[in-house]
Amino acid sequence: MTLLAIETSCDETAAAVLRDGQLLSSVVASQQEHLKWGGVVPELASRAHIIKIVPVVQQALNEANVDLNDIEGVAATYGPGLIGSLLVGLTFAKGLAMSRKVPFLGVNHLEGHLFSAMIEYPDLPMPFLALVVSGGHTILALVQDIGRYHILGETRDDAAGEAFDKVAKILDLPYPGGPSIEKLAREGNPEAVKFPVAKLKGNPYDFSFSGLKTAVLYYYNKLSDAEKKRQRADVAASFQKAVVRALSEKVALAVKKKNIRHVVVAGGVARNRRLADAISALAEKHDFEVYIPSLQYCTDNAAMIGKAADLFFRQGKSSPLNLPPRPNLTLTESSTD
Ligand code: KG4
Ligand code: ZN
Q1: Could you tell me if 31 and 177 lie in one domain?
Q2: Are residues 30 and 138 in the same domain?
Q3: CA of 268 to the centre of ligand 2 (A)
Q4: How many Cβ atoms are within 10 Å of 330's Cβ, its own excluded?
Q5: Shared-domain flag, residues 144 and 287
Q6: CA distance 306 to 325
Q7: Which residues surround ligand 2, an ion (CB under 5 A)?
Q8: Which of 132, 167, 299 to mutate to test the pocket of ligand 1 (most atoms within 8 A of CB)?
Q9: How many other C-beta atoms lie within 10 A of the C-beta of residue 147?
Q10: How many CB atoms lie within 10 A of CB 187?
Q11: 145 and 275 share a domain?
């Protein structure tokens, strides 16, 4: 089956073509409109999607060397995300499916991240443990099968990527914060400041990053301008270390308690080298396999939406053409419910 997949849940306009589960092309147009605002402006995002969707889809078809007549199914993200952004890709995909008379499938963006490692590891064995760490989500889940997930823990406040973005703002670094902090942290000493990792009551797999962000804010704002300049890289490195520790501690706990053999780390924060190194070190110690997608499949893209769609289409599933966008969709509400 030759599939066209579309992703417009936030600020990337993306399209991909897959044939029999194999990726033929993946195009991502990142919106530059938001840079000067230090974060995504929803109205600007939806307007940019409207302008970019046709050329992005056309480019994906060209790069895959197919035309619309070859497309046998169309998939698009229907949630979670920004309502105006979701509507652009979803409506476009439905219109295309209707006019071509091919099946349509709405994909849960989080399931896209969950299965993103399968783009490069198609035989990834299930069950696996997935750590999805992005700008909007921090989820530790057991993936028992396609459509069967058990959420072990989630963030109670900020997502890991959001913490990177907020701390970058405090340190006066450009958006998105993750890459800026990682770059600056290379020049800093991660042992310089001991930032706290939240100890939470209740579910041992839950995360919290707002206390850490506040600790950075208090620490940094007390410094003089000269100290800020001297210590900025140390603060970035120490903050990054605290996030990596918080994330890898929960993975270690789950691996020990749940007898896990395979671990996927996905989402924008999975691009972080320190996080990848920490999980790989755990893998050696506890004898499990780690699967982290290549950089371009960690951040938002349509290849992962296509991969998830392919798994569902294979099960004979599809979605009705009146499927509404779901800005607050959760992982356990499956795409084809
Ligand atoms: O998955 P994604 O593209 O979008 C969402 O679904 O949210 O993730 C974007 C997030 C941003 O918060 C960004 O700061 C973070 O991923 N990120 C990183 C790195 N690259 C991107 N965080 C830490 N280190 C990185 N190298
Ligand atoms: Zn995402």
Answers
A1: no
A2: no
A3: 7
A4: 15
A5: yes
A6: 18
A7: 134, 300
A8: 299
A9: 18
A10: 11
A11: yes
